[in-house]
Structure formats: C-alpha cells, structure tokens
Amino acid sequence: MSSNDLIDRKYYSLYIGNLSADIRRKELCQYLEHYSQVDECQLFEANHRRWTCFAFVLMRTPDSINRLMSTRPHYLDNRRLYLKRALPDQCSNKIEHFLTSESVLIHFKDFKNQEIHEPNFNDENIRNYFQTYGYILNLYLLKNNRCVIEYNDYDSVDCIILDSPHYFNSHELQIDKYYSTEQLKQLDRMFTHNHELPSLGAGEDGEQVEQFLHSRRYLNMRIRLLNDSIESVKISNEIKLETIHQGFLLTINRRKELLEQIKELNKQCQILHEKNEAIKENNQNRLHLNSKLEKNYQQQITDQQNKQIQWRQKIESLQEQT
C-alpha cells in the first residue's frame, strides 16, 4: 500500500461476524478473494467470553468493500455472515463498532458550549447532502439544530461515520448512530442473558462471575446503556412530538387550502349566479319584445285583412254599378 492508502486504511477494513466455529482463516480468505485480494485477516475464535467467531479483514481496495456490502447477504458454511465496515476508534464509541443502526443523529459538535444559529439547517439542505450516502426513508428535524435521518440500509450510516468529519457552513457536525429504545432493550437483554458474562459451565466459578459483575468494564457498559436509553427516549419523544407537530401543521395548511378553495368556489358561484341573473333578464326582455312584436304582427295582419275586405266591397260595388 502507498502512504495515502495507509492514511485511508479505515476504508479498507471489514468486520465479519456470525462465522462458523469450524471456520479456518484460509477458507474465509478464499471466499473473500472472489471480490479482491485480502491483505490481512484476523480471526477470533469462540470461547467462554465470545459466543461466536468473528474476523477483522483488510482488503486490497476500498471498491472491494463496496462490492461485498452491495452483494449482501453472504453465506459460508451454511451460515449467513454479518458484514459491516470496521469503524476506527476516533470515528465512534465502543458500542457503535459492533452494533448497526439505520438511523443517524446529527447536530453541531459544539452546540452545548455555544448557541449556533443556522437558518439554513433545514430539511432541503440536509437531505441534499446526506442523500448521497443512500436512500433516506425519513428525516426528522429536532430542536437545537439537530436531526435524525433514517436510511433503508445500516451501511449508509457507517459510511457517514467513516467520512467524518462533516461540516455545515464551517461548523463541524457531530455524527452518532441513533438506536431506538427497543434496540437498546434488545442489547440489554443480550448482555443479561449470559452472552457477555462468564459461563460457569466453561470452568468459571461464582466468585469470578461476581468479580466480573462488579468490574469497571461491566459497570461502564451498563452505565453507557442506561445513558443511551435515556437519551433515546428523549429523542424518541422529540420525534413523536415533531411528527405530531408536522401533522398538525399539515392539517392547518390543508384546512387553509380548503378554505381558500371554498372561497374561490364561492366567488365562482357568485359570478355564475350573476351571469344566470343576467341571462334570465335577457330572456325576459326577449320574451317581452317577442310579445310586443307578436301583437304588432297580429295588428298588421288584422289591418291588412280589413283593407282587403274594404277593397273587395268597393270592387263589388263598382261591378254592380256597371
């Protein structure tokens, strides 16, 4: 690899989980080399602290990572592999290294220390930038210049985190995976069902389990999950309130549109009514005029008939004289 390749090493790394307990490094590499050459492959076998095998792989080109992710799902030894881009330490916290999420929480990195006013931080500008990472299902604008974007694929979120830092009008953005309350509950159940705890059947005694339960690592993990759960509930409530608010605004706007349409229809009805009245008046005038003309014609016919009678009488009188 060149020096530039080493700098961008994060774009070449892949995490592969749910591997078979019988998998061998050579077998895994042979499968991956259908997409590109494998430079490094670290295979971690299952033991009493890990319930499945997993591996970290360094591919020769970043395009091979894209091909692997775009051709999911992958199967090896009749097991569906769990693939995700490996995230470096500076890109995310510990939990985000292994958990996936289709949603991302975005806010200004220093918004807690100083208030940032960004009127251009709106749906259109955010969508135009972040839709390059994948198809956006939903975008929720929250208070304090924050937003949650939901994609149709968790790989879009990992790509956003890998491309950090992101900037909006010279302000650096803080990018974090957003986990729903239900996702965090599932994670909590996963840790409390002996997936992370030492197993007594694996040669551990009760004292060792107790030590682990009181270890800094386990307590920090539980505290982090609790804090994330609280934050998730807050954001979830904000999303619900924002959804209700947007629905309320849509209802108000729709009502305004309907009122404007009704107003316009009333105007058109008034115009049609005035036209109808004018047509009625014209018809009445025509009927009155027709009636007068008919009387005049009848009178003219009567006059002509009388004249004819008079002329006939005169002719008869002249004939008698002669």
Automatic annotation (TrEMBL):
Tell where it localizes.
Nucleus
CC annotations in GO: chromatin; nucleoplasm
Q: Which residues form a coiled coil?
A: 255-321
Question: One Pfam family, short name please?
Answer: RRM_1
- Grouped into one coarse class, the protein's main location is nucleus
Annotated ranges, domain RRM? 12-88
PROSITE patterns with a match to the protein in the record: RRM
Listed A to Z, the keywords are: Coiled coil, Nucleus, RNA-binding
Under Gene Ontology molecular function, one entry of this record is:
RNA binding
Q: What is this protein called?
A: RRM domain-containing protein
Species of provenance: Rotaria magnacalcarata
